[in-house]
C-alpha cells in the first residue's frame, strides 16, 4: 500500500533583498508607522514569509488583518487574509479548516482579481484531494485551469494541468494522468523551468510505476534526480528518493531500495519535515518486513506511528497498523495481529464515515441556500409587479389631469396618450408573462427539490431499516439460529446495504449535476470504444443471468462530449437492460452516425414496458421503479440522471418498447467538432503538487 504526499512548490516575492530574519524584522518595524492599507500589506507579507516554516504564525498575522476596524472598507485584504489562513491550515494538515477559509476567500474575490481566485481554487483542490474527495477536487482544479487559461500564463497553466493529473492518478485513471502530466511537462520545458521539469519527471515516473513499466519509471525518476541532485533547497527531494526506493523494492532489489530509503530519511530529517520522516520510516519498515528482519521493521513502524499520531496524519497510521498486523501474523503472534488489524479497520472506517458525512452535509447546505435564493427571487418579482401597477395608475391620473387642463388640445393629447398606453400595456404584458414563466419554473424547481428530499428520506430509510433489523436479530439470537438462517440474514443485510449504497451514489451524482458542481469537460470520444469498455464492466452481471452482450457498429463515430457523463449513461442503460431481461436473453448495443449526430441504442428482448409506464421513465415526480426479472431493486433515478447528462451534452434520449417483446433505449450525441484552445506565457508564483 503506497502513500500519497503533496509538497507545494512556490516562488515568493521578496519585499526586501536580505536574509529571512532581516526581512521579517524590517517588516515588523513598518507595522506601527504605516497607513491602514500599507499595514495590511506588511502583515500579509509577514504571513507569506512565515507560512513555509511557521504556519501558525502566518495564521496569527492573517487574524491581525481581520481584526482591524477599518477592514470592512477593503474586501481585497479580507480575501487575502482568508487565503493566507487557508494555505497555512493546509500546511498544518488541517484540511477541513483550509477548505472553510478558502471558500470564504473565494466569496470575497472580485472581477479584477482572477489570479487570486485561481490560486484559491488551486489550494481548495489540494485540500479536497487530501480527504479523498477526488470529484470535488477535480472540479476545483478545472475551475482554476479555466481562469488561468484566460490569464494566459503558461507556468500557472502547467501547474493546474499537473494537479489535474494528480487527481486522475489517485483515481487510477493512469492514461488520463499521463496525458495531463505530459501537457504540463511541455509547458515547463518551453519555459526552461528546471525544478518544474523535475516534478513532472517524478510524476510521470509514478504513472509508469503503477502501469508496471519499471524501465520507463526508473528512467523518468533518474532524469528528475539528475536535475535536483545538488540543489539544497528542494523540499520534495525525499519524496523522489522514496519513489526510487519503492520501485527497487517492487522489483525485488532490497539492497538498492535501502540505499535510496536511507538517503530519503537523511534529507527528511535535515529539513525537519515530520510528514516525510514518518512516511520514509514506514517505507523502510515495510522493506525490512519483506526482508524478514522483523525486529528492525517493528522498531521503525513504532517510530513512524508515534510521529504520525503527533502530526495527525491518519493515512500513515492506517499503513502502520496494516503492516504491523501482517508482521505479527508472520511471527505467529495472532492475538497481536488481530489487535492491530482491528485498529487499522477502525481508522479506515472513521475516514470513510467522515468523508461521507462531509459530502451529505455539503449537499444539504447547498439545497438550503438555493431554497433561500428562490424565495428571494419570488419576492423581487412581486415587488416588480407592484411597481408596474403603481406606474400604470400614475399614467391614468396624468391622463385625466391633462384632459381637464388642456381642453383645447384634447384630440392631440388623446392620441398621444392612447399610443403611450398601448406601448406601456404591451411592455407590462410581456413582463407579466416573463414573471409568470419564472414563477412556474421556480415552483417546479421547489417541487423537484422537495421530491428529491422525500426520496432521500423514504428510499434510503428502507435499506438501512433492513440492515438494522437483521443485524439486531443476528446479535440477539446468533447462537439460536441455524447456519443456513444466519447465512440468509447476512445475504439480506448485504443486498440492503448494496441497494442503499447504489441509491446514495446515484443521488450524489444527480444532485451535483443539478447544482453545477459536476464540471462539463467535453473531449473527442470514439463512442464505440467507450461502449466496449463499459460492456466489459457489465459482463459479470450478464453472465450471472446467461445474457449475451453484442455490439453492432454500423459506422464509426467520433463525438464531442463529456466522457464520464456518457459512460454513466451507457452503464445505466446496460444495467437496466440486464435487470429486465430474462435468463439466456440478448442485449445489443448499436452505434450509427447520420445527419451530424451519433445515435447510440441499447436493445433487449426483455419484459418490455407498458405504454402508461413509459411516460413516467424520465420524470422525477413519478419516481417510477419496479423490480427486475430476478427481483433486483432499483433507485428510480438512473434514467433521470441519463436524461440530464445526455441533454447537457446537446443530445436527446428516448425509448421504444412493447410489453412482452423487449425495449430499445436510444440517445443522440453531436458528432466531432474541432476545438482549438490557446494557451500562454508566465507569471511570478507557481503552486503545484509532487506525488509519491
From TrEMBL:
Keywords: Kinase, Membrane, Phosphoprotein, TPR repeat, Transferase, Transmembrane, Transmembrane helix, Two-component regulatory system. It is an enzyme of class 2 (transferase). TPR repeats lie at residues 158-191. Gene3D superfamilies: 1.10.287.130, Histidine kinase-like ATPase, C-terminal domain, Tetratricopeptide repeat domain. GO terms for molecular function: phosphorelay sensor kinase activity. It holds the Pfam family HATPase_c. The keyword Transit peptide does not apply. PROSITE patterns: HIS_KIN, TPR, TPR_REGION. The keyword Secreted does not apply. It catalyses: ATP + protein L-histidine = ADP + protein N-phospho-L-histidine. Its EC number is 2.7.13.3. SMART domains: HATPase_c (SM00387), HisKA (SM00388), TPR (SM00028). Residues 455-673 form the Histidine kinase domain. The chain crosses the membrane at residues 397-416. Coiled coil: none annotated. This is histidine kinase. It comes from Labilibaculum euxinus.
